[in-house]
Write a structure and sequence with these properties.
heterodimer, A: 288 residues, Thrombin, subunit H, 2 domains, 6-stranded antiparallel β-barrel, 6-stranded antiparallel beta barrel, 12 strands, globular, B: 164 residues, mainly alpha
């Protein structure tokens, strides 16, 4: 205890300097990708930490599996079987439609975009950071996951992979305020950009000019512009359209079709039609 | 004298690492979003304890390094947590003698106040400089952290008495 006062000669100055350094770092990291290599290179070191942090959820999942009653399991099984039958029925029509679509496309001379394969991933959890909408998946680079990969669920677009370590990956959700996706209104073929607002159940459309024909209930799908997302995946339904008097742009809110609130499994999309190597992960869409 | 120095830093590092893991534990999928605003700032609490208990070992420099590691693990922007932790450590360094004299619940009040200050600074930086939006619910975090302070304090005091 004797050295106590000698050692800490000037903590206040030190604090001020470090405060300013932090501030600078934060601004640099926020406004440029200069520090991204640091993040990418530490992925391997951090793996055990992530593994540890998911231990409780794995434990809970294991325990609840043991205690789940047989009746409940039977009921879910019945439900699943019914669902499979329904989906199979839908699939019958689908294959016919697919063939027809391929035929029509060949008539038009454009390449078919049906050659997409998917990988099912389980969600390990939601990000602890309140200002970001991330989810962690149990699939990583070892499974072929790459940064920038589109992620969907059964109902629509979920987001894109922003970080991939060897066995885990992190997905930026479409609702994150740093995320934007080029979309197409199905009814009118209007090209728009849907961006996150930092709210779990809402997107907004950017630069909707007053003359554009949009209605509440219109379906928006990915347009495929920007080369990041394959085209045709549902993104959301227009929930409200508000044009303030005299304003050049309308305020349009979109409700995502994917069940972002209750996700447990998602699909990672491998689209052979898109270039596999992307050097700059989020910029094409996020800065839109 | 040699032995505690060897053992000392280890327990500090271990408890802070554990705090980071706790901060990272993902919420179960499908849980309400508001839940994440109620998660106590485990790393901040751990830092406050050690900065008050052993200020000669845990000061602003440690806080800064800890903040960078936290930023890396939680993938918040570099500097976000270190900014807050530097403030916490500076506050602790200037007042640990008085804080040690207080009752636990009074300390908890101070912890809430300090974390509130930190959250305000972080909120200001995030919204004013970075022009990002952040829910005002983040101000719930200091409260939940304050409620956790007594338990963190007792647990870490146990660690300190045993290993430091």
């Amino acid at each position: 205890m004797k050295q106590l006062f000698l050692e800490r000669s000037n903590p206040r100055n030190q604090a001020v300097v470090l405060f300013i350094v932090s501030l600078l770092l934060f601004v640099i990291d926020g406004k440029s990708d200069a520090l991204d290599p640091v993040r990418q290179s530490t992925g391997l070191v951090l793996e055990p930490v992530y593994w540890l942090s998911t231990a409780p959820s794995r434990l809970i999942a294991g325990v609840s599996d043991i205690f789940e009653s047989r009746d409940v399991q039977r009921a879910t099984l019945r439900e699943r079987n019914q669902q499979i039958r329904l989906l199979q029925a839908g699939q019958l029509k689908m294959s016919a439609l697919e063939a027809e679509n391929a035929r029509l496309r060949s008539l038009l001379g454009s390449a078919s975009r049906m050659n997409e394969s998917v990988l099912i991933a389980e969600i390990k959890g939601l990000s602890p950071d309140p200002s970001a909408h991330h989810i962690t998946l149990d699939k990583g680079r070892d499974d072929g996951v790459f940064v920038g990969q589109p992620v969907i669920d059964a109902a629509g677009l979920v987001g894109q992979v922003v970080e991939a370590s060897s066995r885990l990956s992190k997905v930026l959700l479409v609702t994150d305020q740093n995320h934007a996706v080029p979309v197409l209104a199905v009814r009118t073929a209007a090209q728009l950009i849907a961006e996150g607002r930092g709210q779990r159940d809402m997107l907004s459309l950017r630069h909707v000019s007053a003359s554009l024909d949009l209605k509440v209930g219109d379906l928006l799908v990915t347009s495929g512009l920007g080369q990041r997302f394959p085209s045709g995946y549902p993104v959301g339904l227009i929930q409200s359209y508000h044009l303030p008097p005299g304003a050049a742009f309308a305020q349009v809110l979109v409700k995502p079709t994917s069940r972002l609130q209750t996700l447990d499994h998602v699909l990672l999309v491998f689209d052979e039609g898109l270039p596999a190597e992307r050097s700059d992960p989020d910029r094409t869409t996020t800065d839109g | 004298m040699a032995e505690p120095i060897l053992r000392g830093p280890l327990i500090i590092v271990l408890t802070l690492l554990l705090a980071i893991v706790l901060a990272l534990v993902p919420l179960p999928a499908g849980s309400p979003e508001a839940l994440k605003f109620l998660r106590p700032d485990w790393v901040g609490l751990g830092l406050i304890y050690w900065a008050i208990a052993v200020p000669e070992r845990v000061g602003v420099l440690t806080a800064f390094a800890l903040g960078l590691v936290t930023d890396l693990v939680l993938s918040t922007g570099f500097g976000y947590h270190s900014l807050g932790f530097v403030i916490l450590a500076a506050l602790a360094a200037s007042s640990y003698q008085q804080v040690r004299m207080l009752e636990i619940w009074q300390q908890a009040m101070l912890v809430i106040f300090a974390l509130f200050l930190v959250t305000t600074a972080q909120y200001a930086v995030l919204t004013l400089i970075m022009e990002r939006q952040l829910s005002l619910l983040v101000f719930l975090k200091p409260l939940s952290s304050g409620l956790m302070w007594p338990w963190v304090f007792l647990l870490l005091r146990l660690c300190r008495r045993r290993y430091l």
